[in-house]
Structures are given as structure tokens and as C-alpha cells.
Amino acid sequence: MPQLNSSSEKPILNASITISRKSFFGGAAIPFNIIIDGVSVGKVDNGKTVNIPFSSGLHKIYIKVPVWNRNNHTDEILVDLTNTQNIKFICGYKAPNFVFLQKV
Fold it and tell me: How many domains does the chain have?
């Protein structure tokens, strides 16, 4: 969860996570859900890149595909964001787990 600033109670978004999705014909119309700390924070479409402002600190991130019943998400990746840091990931389809997320 983003850190809260006690004076304004708004999240301090001092870092970011960038996720690029490889273009792939199969499943191209299905957006991938981006989950950080158990909360859906956005989607990434086929061949697109999204940048998500986030708070510094330790976070768990994974990708979930909403239409499959099994093998529908990547393993969680633990990241430790520092102030002004941007961590980049790439995601897409890959056998045998169908969907992957990896740090670039």
C-alpha cells in the first residue's frame, strides 16, 4: 500500500513501477491485471507499457489474467522501491505457465 502523509492523508507516490507487455497474437484482446500488495492498480494491454506511480518501500507485485481458471497469474515478485526509483518489468505469454512477469 502507498505510504500516507500524516498531514494530508494522501499517498506519497515518490517512486514508480513500469510494466511493458510483449506483443503476442494469442490473447491479444485480454488485458493483464496488475496487482501490487494484493490490490489491482491497473491493466496493461497487448504491446503496451504502463507506468504506475507508487510509494517507496517493500511491495509484492504480480500479473493476473482474468479469464483463465488455472495458471492465470504469475509468481509474486518482491521489490524494494527507494525514493524516485523506477523499477521496470516485462510481461507476456510463455509456456508452461502461460503468463510471466520478470524484472528487466
Answer: 1
Predicted TM-score (pTM) above 0.85: no
Residue 15 CB-density burial (10 A; 0-12 exposed, 13-18 middle, 19+ buried): buried
Please state the rounded mean pLDDT for residues 31-53. Answer: 95
Annotate 63-100 with b (16+ C-beta within 10 A) or e (fewer): bebeeeeeeebbebeebebeeeeebebebbbeeeebbb
- The CATH number linked to 94 is 2.60.40.2890
Contact yes or no for 38/60 (Cβ under 8 A): yes
